[in-house]
Amino acid sequence: MSYFDKVLIANRGEIAIRVMRACRELGIETVAIYSTPDKNALHVKYADEAFHIGEAHPSKSYLNADRILEIATMCGAEAIHPGYGFLAENYRFAERVEESGLNFIGPSSKTIHMMGSKLDSKEAMSAAGVPVLPWTKGGVTSTEEGIAFAEEIRYPVIVKASAGGGGIGMQIVREESDISEAIEKGMRIAQSAFGDPTIFIEKYLDKPRHIEVQVLADKHGNAIHLYERECSIQRRHQKLVEEAPCSIMTPELRKRMTDSALTVAKTCNYTNAGTVEFLYSNGEYYFMEMNTRLQVEHTITEIVTGVDIVRQQIAIAAGEKLAYKQDDIILRGHAIECRINAEDPMNNFAADPGKIVRYRSPGGPGIRVDSGIHVGYAIPPQYDSMISKLCAFGLTRIEAIERMRRAIYEYVILGVKTTIPLHHALMNNRQFIEGNTHTHFLEDQHIRDNLQRFFRDEESRMQTLAESLRQGKETAAVTAAISVYLHQTKKNE
Length: 493
Ligand code: MV4
Description:
With about 500 residues, the protein is α+β, with helices and mostly antiparallel strands. Helix content is about 35%, strand content about 25%. The chain is built from 16 helices and 20 strands. It has helices spanning about 15-25, 40-45, 65-75, 90-100, 110-115, 120-125, 145-155, 180-195, 250-265, 300-305, 310-315, 395-410, 420-425, 430-435, 445-470, 480-490, and strands at about 5-10, 30-35, 50-55, 80, 105, 155-160, 170-175, 200-205, 210-215, 225-235, 240-245, 270-280, 285-290, 335-340, 345, 350, 360, 365-370, 385-395, 410-415. The chain has an eight-stranded antiparallel sheet with strand order 13-12-9-10-11-14-19-18. Strands 3-2-1-4-5 form a five-stranded parallel sheet. It is globular. The relative contact order is 0.10. It binds ligand MV4. Ligand MV4 binds near residues 204, 237, 277 and 289.
């Protein structure tokens, strides 16, 4: 079956490869685009055709809509998959793709536009009966108005940019003396970051959980959900660990949340794959925003439902009816994703781009690795630091955690510092194991103290390995054997 003959993937790294894999399975030819430093990147090698688009800076390359559309038209692509980030949620780009007679593999530009305004989407979803936190309808136009509203809903409150998302311009305000400044600052940040000063004030929840529902909707009015993911473990609004399903989910809460997610999808005429984001606290949940793209963590939903989300995206874009009814979607087991970033967790997560000198990814039962790196690959400093997504599946949550620990132990990445030690610590953290997480989990002092020990363990494991490699000793083919080798070395010392 072929929905399209040729698809251009307007992205790089692991997600470009992920999309191309679905295309390959479907017999669709793939077109890669690349910036100068990505000339030798894996996504370029994987594609059937590849075109250089510009210099490293995203504005010259992966955000260069003119050039991308020119290449798509020139090479005869029928559709463009935007991946995540870059142009994925840019409604003007989606509009231009539509106007060029090409297919945008995602929702319509109108839907992207509507969900891009947090204020408009909140208003629409509240009107449709989806739970939302109390907020200033219509935004905040004067400081006085903001002060009066905060007084009414009581502190703490949070100031958010309507065009925002991802935390930019968000400010928590705990008392009246700080509100005017926060409003003024919020407007300034919103204007400079998004070119739109519109802000709103909302009741603030302390330490909520971030729970999101994956949805799929076709162009014939059918929509289904693929259950939820818990994404509370994040740092500076960058998720680090996600899991599916959410460990505290009950049948009753799940029914309400997934119903709400489908209401959201219907209310904005959603098509393609999307994610409805909620905050959860004390048995209640509230709609935050909808991500109108394929997400990084779609993989764990694929693992627990068996649905290939990218394949469905392509089928939906081609006008097919959904291949599944809600009752066909069966949740089985548990999946966890650890995002491996080239960052130093011991040094405030500073980016650590550089050359990968040794690389061996884990495998075996229940392990999935999506990455765009290889030995000899130089991580370009211009882009996101995520270099790999490590996912573990188990029939139970604890089995998934055990497999994740084992896979982390097998993973060898030398040459750059990574978030692996952090994941090592998290997978051994009592609170995490108990499923006792929230959005401020990594800020807790006792967790940070606990992490130190694991950082040191991992550092010394990597140093011993690096040292033995420098001495020219060969490691066994199976990574697990590396540690046996290390133990032997230690014993012999
Ligand atoms: C909130 C919140 C608490 N109360 N809104 C962050 C990103 C965006 N998707 C929504 N976010 C939040 N919105 C209300 N009313 C907590 C977050 C939040 C957060 C806030 C401060 C610092 C870290 C955070 C991590 C995740 C979510």
